[in-house]
Amino acid sequence: MTSSLSIPQRTPTAVAVRATWEFAAPAAPRGLVLAREKGWVLAWDEKNWLYLLDRSGRRQAQVPSPRLLTAVCCADDGSSWAAAGAGGEVWWLAPDLMPRWQRHLPHPVLAVAMDPFGQYLAVADAGGRLTVFDRNGKPVGQAGTPRPLHHLAFVPEAPVLAAAADFGFVAVFDLTGGLRWRDGLASHCGALAVAGRGDPILLACFSDGLHIYSLDGSRHDRRRMLEPCRLVGLSYDGRRILVGGLSNRLLLLEADGQTLADHSLPQPLAALALGPLGTTAVVALTDGRVLGLDLRAE
Q1: What one-character DSSP code corresponds to residue 159?
Q2: What share of the chain is helix, strand, coil (3-state, %, to 5)?
Q3: Cα 74 to chain center, whole Å?
Q4: Percentage of the chain with pLDDT > 90?
Q5: Per-residue b/e over 44-78, b at no fewer than 16 CB within 10 Å?
Q6: What is the full DSSP assignment across 20-68?
Q7: How many whole angstroms separate alpha carbon 13 and alpha carbon 35?
Q8: In angstroms, what CA-CA distances link 227 with 57, 238, 247, 261?
Q9: pLDDT higher than 50, residue 12
Q10: Cα separation of 274 and 244, whole Å?
């Protein structure tokens, strides 16, 4: 049973949001992923270039994609990266972004996720198929879903994968594609984030706020936000939540809903990632900038 929490009240900012580095891409970013242990970032832009940045925002590699990129993911230690395309292409990439292997699916790829140790790659396509590959490119699991999955995330401390469609479906699968649980979701979903142990699993559902699940499928009270939320990041322990909406507003919350920071960025958000301790973040802005942020308490 779902109930709604009251809207968190504005409180004096307890965390200072400070930009520590900036990278300017030549085109508007379409997304980014953070290797949480290494602190490196992989971003991609509208011209289908991939940019690998170190923890200080310095470019370490950049490569063009021959196809329209639709999704990117990485291992937490930065040992492996992966990218996928609108033509069904899936690339497993080495640390220098050179391809190690490529596979081709019959439908455009919508989402990818890599486990923290770089052993498995989950791929969801527009045909409603979830495929799990091992690090050598061998399929080890498959599942069909009632709606195509747009969001995937491995649970770091459990051999399972959280997944959500853009509307109407959220589930957890094991590595062979076996369904652990599923739930109907009467909301549009913009992003998915999981804590290290899988509690909580968060879904950013625009005007419906944050939907919250436990790893066993228990549904918690959803949290309404001050404005529609499209993007969400979660610290490893689940105690800090970073939320971005349709504007340039960035909110940092405690797990109980207390607002730690309410910060206005210079441009609207294209993507975000929260560091494992919740004290750093990376955001991509629609004007082409990628910013590293310090979120430590004042």
Answers
A1: S
A2: 0, 55, 45
A3: 11
A4: 91
A5: bbeebbbbbbebebeeebebebeeebbbbbbbbeb
A6: EEEEE-SS-EEEEEEETTTTEEEEEETT-EEEEE-TTS-EEEEEE-SS-
A7: 28
A8: 30, 22, 9, 15
A9: no
A10: 11
| Mean pLDDT computed over every residue of the chain | 94
Model pTM score: 0.93
Query: Which pLDDT does position 6 carry in this prediction?
Result: 42
pLDDT in tens, 87-124: 999 999 999 999 999 999 999 999 999 999 999 999 99
- Taking the C-alpha atoms of residue 171 and residue 54, their distance in angstroms, rounded to an integer, is 33
What lies within 8 Å, CB to CB, of 224 at 6+ separation is 4, 5, 6, 7, 208, 209
Here the tokens at position 103 are 């596979």
Q: What gap in Å lies between CA 284 and CA 278, rounded to an integer?
A: 17
* Type of residue found at 102: Q
Angle at the Cα of 248 (from 244 to 251), degrees rounded to 5?
40
Q: Taking 70 as the threshold, does the pLDDT of residue 11 lie above it?
A: no
The pair of structure tokens assigned to 144 is 């069909």
Q: CA dist 124 to 22, 89, 137, 160, 171, Å?
A: 32, 12, 15, 15, 13
Long-range pairs for 168-172: beta carbons < 8 A, 24 or more residues apart: 169/145, 170/201, 170/203, 170/211, 170/213, 171/145, 172/198, 172/201, 172/215, 172/217
Phi-psi region of 127 (alpha: psi -120 to 50; beta: other; left: phi over 0): alpha
Between β-strands 89-93 and 99-104, what pairing exists: parallel, antiparallel or unpaired?
A: antiparallel
For 194-237, write each residue's pLDDT tens digit: 999 999 999 999 999 999 999 999 999 999 998 899 999 999 99
The pLDDT-based confidence of 186 (bands split at 50, 70, 90) is confident
